[in-house]
């Protein structure tokens, strides 16, 4: 059969040896060029898809964070949320994109090598693949440990980012009280904890790698032992054994890569968990399905038996009732923590009361669509805040459709022009 195939193939090859050599060289160059083209196209396509997914995922997470109530944000640290929004999403892409490509390639190579080896010698192939279940068990066992170590590392990274964001946001206070060294020491401690968590994850990955190498070595020795005995007994030629061992090497290389991919998948799972935790968080302040746009409000405010607490069974406001007429000016006076800012937050519907009703112009504010209601309320915060935009853009943030003339008039009214 092989001789017939070679005779058939010879009809298409040039008879001149120099022409044959030139054809072979051209074929090698052509194959390399095609391989490079396909590899380039594959990686560019995969990276493009990965970058697009990351971009869309970041937008989705950011939009979700904007919709979640202050109750959610009061229980989270800004630094940790930033790590999830940027670091976790980026790490997810860096792991998943090459992982998908490698997994597909290595799985096909593994299946192909097993088929070739089985056709050549089924007994030796069964001995070689007998080690694969052990590798699966080791990957599953260490995968759980790597996942937990990675989860702890990401938590520590979030704490590092939290300390950094708090320090940068309060530089004036830190310098005024001369506590820069104490804050730096706090940052160093958190950074050291993050380092240790990362090293633990690395040690687990390397331990899994050593187990894989030992298991593969045992499998190779068994194949060599059985194959050599069969060769000495005349059951197979030395050349066949050498070829089979070469195939065995080709079998174990994708096996190593698949185990490595499994370890990376454990890290990717942690990033995915942290991202989904945000996307799956419930909105405590929600619009009712039948909410209506708020009409033009005159400003009559009524609290009717309002009770509210940031923590369960610890109310800040208890059965509070009052009424403010349109145009009336009211000052709330009391010690820190008495609930002054809480009343404003409830009026803006940043929180919902645990009991009672808040009405504006006689309407329960929970019946209004949030955006149409809040756009009719102006608020001056205790601490000034400016977005990293121009003065005009900061003035416009309260009404995006404002014209340049309206912005100028507002600036003049505020003595800012």
What does this structure look like?
- With 417 residues, the protein is mainly alpha-helical.
- The protein folds into two domains: 14-279, ABC transporter type 1, transmembrane domain (ABC transporter transmembrane region fold); 301-413, 3-Layer(aba) Sandwich (Rossmann fold).
- It is built from 13 helices and four strands.
- The chain has a four-stranded antiparallel β-sheet, with helices on one face.
- Strand 1 and strand 2 (317-324) form a beta hairpin.
- Helix 4 runs antiparallel to helix 5, helix 4 runs antiparallel to helix 9 and helix 6 (132-169) packs parallel to helix 9.
- It is elongated and about 105 Å long.
- It starts with a helix and ends with a helix.
Q: What descriptors fit this protein?
A:
ABC transporter transmembrane region fold; Rossmann fold; 4 strands; four-stranded antiparallel β-sheet; disordered N terminus; 417 residues; single chain; 2 domains
């Amino acid at each position: 059969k092989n001789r017939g195939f070679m005779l058939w193939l010879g009809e298409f090859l040039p008879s001149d040896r120099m022409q044959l050599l030139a054809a072979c060289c051209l074929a090698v160059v052509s194959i390399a060029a095609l391989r490079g083209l396909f590899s380039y196209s594959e990686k560019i396509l995969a990276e493009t898809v990965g970058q697009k997914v990351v971009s869309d995922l970041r937008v989705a997470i950011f939009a979700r964070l904007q919709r979640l109530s202050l109750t959610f944000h009061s229980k989270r640290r800004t630094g940790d949320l930033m790590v999830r929004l940027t670091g976790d999403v980026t790490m997810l892409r860096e792991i998943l994109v090459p992982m998908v490509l490698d997994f597909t390639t290595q799985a096909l190579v593994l299946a192909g090598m097993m088929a070739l080896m089985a056709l050549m010698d089924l007994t030796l192939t069964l001995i070689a693949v007998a080690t694969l279940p052990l590798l699966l068990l080791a990957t599953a066992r260490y995968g759980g440990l790597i996942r937990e170590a990675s989860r702890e590392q990401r938590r520590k990274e979030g704490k590092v980012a939290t300390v950094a964001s708090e320090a940068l946001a309060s530089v004036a206070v830190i310098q005024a009280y001369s506590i820069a060294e104490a804050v730096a020491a706090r940052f160093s401690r958190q950074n050291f904890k993050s380092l240790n968590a990362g090293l633990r994850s690395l040690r687990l990955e390397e331990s899994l790698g050593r187990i894989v190498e030992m298991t593969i070595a045992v499998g190779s020795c068994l194949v060599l032992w059985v194959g050599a005995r069969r060769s000495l007994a005349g059951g197979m030629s030395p050349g066949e054994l050498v070829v089979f061992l070469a195939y065995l090497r080709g079998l174990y290389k994708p096996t190593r890569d698949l185990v490595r991919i499994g370890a990376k998948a454990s890290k990717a799972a942690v990033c995915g968990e942290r991202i989904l935790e945000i996307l799956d968080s419930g909105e405590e302040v929600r619009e009712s399905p039948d909410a209506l746009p708020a009409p033009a409000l005159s400003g009559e405010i009524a609290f009717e038996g309002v009770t509210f607490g940031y923590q369960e069974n610890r109310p800040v406001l208890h059965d509070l009732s009052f009424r403010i007429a349109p145009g009336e000016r009211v000052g709330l006076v009391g010690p820190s923590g008495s609930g002054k800012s809480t009343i404003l937050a409830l009026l803006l519907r940043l929180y919902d009361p645990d009991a009672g009703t808040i009405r504006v112009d006689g309407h329960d504010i929970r019946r209004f669509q949030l955006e149409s209601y809040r756009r009719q309320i102006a608020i001056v915060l205790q601490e000034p805040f400016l977005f990293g935009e121009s003065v005009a853009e900061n003035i416009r943030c309260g009404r995006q459709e404002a014209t340049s003339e309206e912005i100028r008039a507002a600036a003049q009214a505020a003595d800012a022009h």
